[in-house]
Design a protein that fits this description.
alpha/beta, 9 strands
C-alpha cells in the first residue's frame, strides 16, 4: 500500500513542487489550498489552516479515504512586509495564525493517528529568515523563529513514538512568493525609501533563488530517510549566511546586511 502524504499550501511554489515530486514516486498525495484548485497529478482539497474545524474536516476526509496519513508537509504560509511601526497587531496576529498556529493545528490533528501507528514524518517549512531576521519583515521572521523552537521541542517529544520531525530552511526560492507578499496597511512616509528598497531586494533575491524542485528534493529526503536530520538548509545563501554570522563580529555582519538591502542609500 502506498504511503499517504499531506502537503498544505500546494497550489503553487514549494508546495506544488513537493506534491508533484511525491506523486511521481508513487505516493498517494493530497495537496491543500484555501480554494481547492483542481490538479491532474494529485488530489487537491480545500483547507484553511487558521480554522480548527477546517483542519479537522480535512484530516478526517483523508483518513476516511486512505485510513492513514504517513507524512505531513506544513508549507502553508505567506509573507508580510512593512516596518514594525507600520504593522498593526491584527496583521501580526493574522500572520501567526497562518504561519505558526496553522502548523500547530495540522500537527495536533494528525498526531493521534501517527502515535497509534507509532510511525510518521512531520516536515515543517522554515526559512533562512527563521535564523537571520531581516528588516521590514520582522513578523514573518518571528513566525519562522517560533517554528524553529517548536520543531526542535517536537523532535524530542515524538522520538519515543517513532515519529520523525524535520525542519526545512530554504533561502531565496524562485516562486511567486515575493509578488504575493502582503504589505502592512498603514504605510508611514518616514519608511518609504528603505522599505521599498528592501522589498525590491527581496523580490530580486527570489528571482535569482534556487528552484522549488531543489527544496522538494530535500523535503522528500527528510521524509524518506531512515535517519532524518532535524534541520535541512537549502540553497547557497541558507548554507553560508548562518555560518558567516557565527564567525564574524556582529557589527561587520550587520553592516553587510544593511548594504545588501541598501538600507543606508539616500531616499
Amino acid at each position: 500500500m502506498s504511503q499517504t502524504v499531506l502537503v498544505t499550501g500546494a497550489s503553487s511554489g514549494i508546495g506544488a513542487a513537493t506534491a508533484r515530486f511525491f506523486h511521481s514516486r508513487g505516493f498517494s498525495v493530497f495537496g491543500t489550498s484555501r480554494k481547492a484548485n483542481p490538479s491532474s497529478e494529485f488530489t487537491m482539497l480545500s483547507l484553511d489552516v487558521t480554522s480548527d474545524a477546517s483542519v479537522r474536516n480535512c484530516i478526517d476526509l483523508i483518513l476516511s479515504q486512505t485510513g492513514r496519513i504517513d507524512i505531513v508537509v506544513n508549507n502553508a504560509g505567506y509573507s508580510l512586509n512593512g516596518a514594525i511601526e507600520e504593522t498593526s497587531i491584527a496583521e501580526v496576529k493574522d500572520q501567526f495564525e497562518t504561519n505558526f498556529f496553522g502548523v500547530l493545528r495540522t500537527v495536533n490533528a494528525v498526531l493521534p493517528h501517527m502515535r497509534e501507528a507509532r510511525s510518521g514524518r512531520i516536515i515543517n517549512i522554515g526559512s533562512l529568515v527563521g535564523l537571520i531576521a531581516i528588516p521590514y519583515g520582522a513578523f514573518y521572521s518571528a513566525t519562522k523563529f517560533a517554528l524553529e523552537a517548536y520543531s526542535e521541542s517536537l523532535w524530542y517529544e515524538l522520538q519515543p513514538f517513532g515519529i520523525g520531525v524535520s525542519l526545512i530552511e530554504p533561502g531565496f526560492v524562485r516562486t511567486s512568493f515575493g509578488h504575493a507578499a502582503q504589505l502592512a496597511a498603514r504605510a508611514l512616509s518616514a519608511y518609504d525609501g528603505p522599505r521599498d528598497r528592501v522589498v525590491a531586494a527581496i523580490k530580486s533575491g527570489i528571482e535569482k533563488g534556487c528552484s522549488p524542485d531543489l527544496v522538494a528534493k530535500s523535503i522528500f529526503h527528510a521524509a524518506t530517510s531512515r535517519r532524518p536530520r532535524l534541520r535541512y538548509r537549502v540553497g547557497t545563501d541558507a548554507v553560508w549566511l548562518p555560518r558567516v554570522r557565527k564567525v564574524v563580529p556582529w557589527d561587520f555582519f550587520a553592516s553587510g546586511l544593511r548594504r545588501q538591502f541598501a538600507l543606508d542609500a539616500k531616499s
